[in-house]
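task queued by scheduler; priority normal; single chain, no ligands, no partner chains; default sampling; output format set to structure tokens
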Amino acid sequence: MEERWPWEAEESLETSDPLAHQRHEELLKEQLPRVVKLLPVQGTVMGSSSPHQTGDIVCYDILKRAPVYDLTSHFSDIQPRAPVRGAHRHISAPTLFCLSGKGWEINDGKTYLFRTYDMLVVPPFTIHQHGGDEETGSQIFVPQSRLFSLLGLTKREQIKFGDNPTFPQGTEPLQDEHGKLIGYRIKRGVLGIKEDIDVMLGADQKTEKVFHARKEASPWQGPVQNTYDRYLKLFHDESVFCNTVPHVIAYEEQPWEWCRQGRLKWFTHPEMDSAARRVWLYMQEIPPGSRSGKHRHMTEEQILVIEGRGYDIHDGSRWDWERGDLISIPAMAEHQHLNADPDHSVLLLSSMPSAGVALGLGGIEQLEDAPEYVDPRRAHRQ
């Protein structure tokens, strides 16, 4: 029998009904849990990293563990004196958040140091590699957006394997005639592919030319005389911007803000000078026994519980969580976070797609204010 793609095999969908897929996905979203445990790390060609937490970023199996389309995440657990991790590059600008320990990041040959709760930003087209301190190691959480994949910009290149690489099930190493490791093969059936795919070490010539041009463009010279010139200039502006923005957003340098949603610390958002323009990323602290504000927005949200225990209310339904859990909030859902511990604060790390802002869908509707905003005396006691 001929092999079919997952959506081709979905016989319950009536092709004559244009809304069948939408109803099917809505039903699936309602059945998926809003709070999940993180998948553990495993050996990869890069080093010890977890799989993508809510469906792989390069396959069609998106509604897999949680009801979100665009957001996913993974994390790396780098033990003290661990083998050196591999290096790769891709088009999108990833955000890497240090959950514990400290370490280093090498971007295009330049080294940046980071500590607990710092955020690293890797500009587009950058060869990057990170590692942990020899004594403390580090654990790094990587929230991601799938938008680049949907735009056909998933292109990534493996520049270097990690020391002692592990080839996961469904892949196998490739060697030249001298036994030198030159790449790996993803076998038919993995991620839904129909034919084997070879991933070779290094850059291909076409990609190298494109990536180099977008990283090395000089500042625009001369006037902008028409609409087309505006976008010629933007090519130069984007290169200059990504070559000058910070690569490390230090926790200590970002202020805490009391706002209607509660106490927030922002690491990146569309108005900040950061190459990480695909996500909003902020930390929220909820005092003992308190709660956040209640709001809703058009885009979905994903939250890692860094410290504490509590629960969320999503459109009237309760979802309990504790340290290390991942909370997924679908698009347009009314939601609020509540701290169930009377003695200890909760610390959350939130990510949201920033594309909604550019699409005119970035506004937040506030439905209830945090208690500390209503009564500032409560905040001063923290």
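post-processing summary
- The chain has a mean pLDDT of 90.
- The chain is about 15% helix and 40% strand.
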